[in-house]
Amino acid sequence: MTLFRLVGIQDIVAIPPSMLNPKVDISRVILDILREKYEDKFMENLGYVICVLNAKYTPRAILIPGNPKIFNEVEAEIVTWYPLDKEVVEAEVADVKEFGVFLRIGRIEGLVHISQIIDDQVSYDKKGIRIIAKKTKRILEKRALVRARIISVSYSSPSPSFKLAFTMRQPFLGRIEWIKEDLEKIKG
């Protein structure tokens, strides 16, 4: 189950003079600054920030002598995703390489090592840019939809980012078509 969270945050936004214009809505400017700062970034205490929904600011600005920016305290609501170990997700195959496949969940990518794709021996078809299972003849290629389990989430510092590793080598994981075929076999 994917865990999305709606999180309230507080921050101080620095508005440069170039963005101040009587014709421009200050709320929109603040929202744009927050989106630039938070969206599509991983923050260790929040997770991956998908979007900033809204922002409220205090009308009293803070001015610092010698600094042309205007500072405002803001409260905002953001939508985040915190990837959890063992979480099952649906993703798209973004790329196929000799060592495995990269899955994409929104703008996030992670790796399924070649040994974790299917419970079968596999080979990499360099010409067709795909993975082929030897016994089952199942094929995995770019843009295929898959279900995978997160087996590793690693965070790196100083720049907040993370890496995901997946497995599809368990029952009812893998390419969606494979799962449907397996369910049909069970139903008889």
Key phrases:
188 residues; mainly beta; OB fold (Dihydrolipoamide Acetyltransferase, E2P); 5-stranded antiparallel β-sheet; 50% strand; elongated
Question: How would you characterize this protein structure?
Answer:
The structure is a single chain. With 188 residues, the chain is mostly beta strands. It folds into two domains: 4-81, 2-Layer Sandwich (Dna Ligase, domain 1); 88-187, Nucleic acid-binding proteins (OB fold (Dihydrolipoamide Acetyltransferase, E2P)). It is 13% helix and 50% strand. The chain has helices at 26-38, 176-187, and strands spanning 4-15, 41-43, 47-57, 62-63, 70-81, 88-97, 100-105, 108-113, 122-125, 130-133, 139-141, 145-156, 161-167, 174-175. Strands 1, 2, 3, 4 and 5 form a five-stranded antiparallel beta sheet that branches. Strands 6-7-8-13-12 form a five-stranded mixed β-barrel. A three-stranded antiparallel beta sheet has the order 9-10-11, with no helix packed on it. Strand 10 (130-133) and strand 11 (139-141) form a beta hairpin. 22% of the residues are buried. The model has no long low-confidence stretch (mean pLDDT 91).
